Amino acid sequence: QVQLVESGGGLVQAGGSLRLSCVASGRTFSRYAMAWFRQALGKQREFVAGITWSGGRTYYSDSVKGRFTISRDNAKNTVYLQMNNLKPEDTAVYYCAQDRRALRTVVITASAEYDSWGQGTQVTVSS
């Protein structure tokens, strides 16, 4: 049973920064790609950023490219999302997710390819 626990959300002014963390347990973390998704009120869940199992490849949505950075520490079973220059449109619940397939060498953006999800952490950016 995989468990993902996010932390680090909060309220920040536009232009500010936050760092989200997601600690995983239940299966060998270092074998699986990880991703962050977000869901704003009244909108569908969308892909934000992903990282392969080794950390060798990352991929970002156009809306966050250049502002957000995903990273991982396999020794700590943790994936991070550093969010800089936050905008009000970044307001959402942020979820971390784990790929359903081990050792995939590319980042998949489709949520259906992730079979484990955290409970989410709220990020609110005020203007």
Describe this structure in words.
- It is a single chain.
- By secondary structure, the protein is mainly β.
- 0% of the residues lie in helices and 53% in strands.
- The protein has no helices and 11 strands.
- The protein has strands at 3-7, 10-13, 18-25, 32-39, 46-51, 58-60, 68-73, 78-83, 92-102, 114-117, 121-126.
- Strands 2, 4, 5, 6, 9, 10 and 11 form a 7-stranded mixed beta sheet that branches. A 4-stranded antiparallel beta sheet has the order 1-3-8-7, with no helix packed on it.
- Strand 4 (32-39) and strand 5 form a beta hairpin.
- 35% of the residues are buried.
- The mean pLDDT is 97.
Layout of helices and strands:
Blueprint: E1 3-7, E2 10-13, E3 18-25, E4 32-39, E5 46-51, E6 58-60, E7 68-73, E8 78-83, E9 92-102, E10 114-117, E11 121-126
Parallel strand pairs: 2-11
Antiparallel strand pairs: 1-3, 3-8, 4-5, 4-9, 5-6, 7-8, 9-10, 9-11
